[in-house]
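Action item from last meeting closed. Structure (247 res):
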């Protein structure tokens, strides 16, 4: 049985407010120990709300010099492309906070995917603390798709969950757009993993994963099980509507 901490919020904004506060607390605790804090960010609509709150309310409250920012995954497009996770984060967050440029480690979506997956793997290995012979992010922010994907690990490519690579190349099953993604073992090696899930279209996937139904076996998100402690599933009411409240 995979242990999960489940937090349900009335709205996506309340979820994002709570997540932002949690992130700020952890960065402050890290600063108290005089250590840097590595975060890997995902794309998607829910992380987007979080980034807006961090930009509006946490520019002064967080010592961004302590923060090393990475991406969980990236679409293989240039950073100016509307599809770019980095481009979205840059517009909503990075342009509004005092984070040193050297602390921002983007995936170069414009480059050859296979070469970039190798380069980014080396950048992560050279910048993030190592635990269990793998990079260990202090915090990983994931989304979950309505097909049960997370990061850019889609239902048809479960091998990325157990790959020995730090990053690898995948492709979106519908658009066939190439993606670069951090792999499952590195995700599960993180000190903490937040999964931000909103919207009624996610409710069936959330129900299957949380209640460990047989169909959840095809959902990569169901394999998120960090060794350091339970994944923290932050859901809005709509995404949680099918899960039994007696959890
Ligand atoms: C991406 C994300 C992806 C996303 C989920 C959920 O590059 O698209 O990393 O894993 O987090 O698809 O996205 P929504 O929150 O928009 O549903």
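Sequence:
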């Amino acid at each position: 049985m995979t242990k999960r901490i489940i937090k349900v919020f009335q709205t996506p904004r309340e979820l994002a407010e709570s997540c932002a506060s949690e992130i700020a607390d952890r960065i402050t605790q890290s600063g108290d120990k005089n250590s840097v804090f590595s975060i890997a960010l995902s794309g998607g609509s829910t992380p987007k709300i979080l980034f807006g709150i961090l930009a509006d309310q946490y520019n002064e409250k967080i010592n961004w010099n302590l923060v090393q920012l990475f991406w969980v995954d990236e679409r293989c497009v240039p950073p100016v492309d509307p599809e770019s996770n980095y481009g979205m984060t840059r517009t909503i967050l990075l342009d509004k906070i005092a984070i040193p440029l050297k602390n921002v480690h983007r995936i170069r979506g414009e480059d050859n995917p296979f070469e970039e997956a190798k380069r980014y793997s080396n950048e992560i290995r050279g910048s993030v603390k190592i635990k269990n012979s793998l990079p260990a992010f202090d915090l990983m922010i994931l989304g979950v798709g309505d097909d049960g994907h997370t990061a850019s690990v889609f239902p048809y490519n479960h091998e990325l969950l157990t790959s020995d690579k730090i990053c690898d190349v995948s492709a979106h099953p519908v658009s066939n757009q190439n993606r670069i993604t951090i792999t499952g073992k590195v995700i599960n090696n993180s000190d903490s993993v937040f999964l931000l899930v909103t919207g009624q279209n996610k409710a069936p996937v959330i129900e299957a994963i949380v209640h460990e139904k047989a169909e959840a076996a095809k959902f990569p998100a169901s394999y998120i099980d960090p060794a350091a402690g339970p994944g923290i599933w932050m859901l809005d009411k709509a995404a949680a509507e099918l899960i039994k409240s007696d959890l």
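Note appended to the action item: The radius of gyration is 17 Å.
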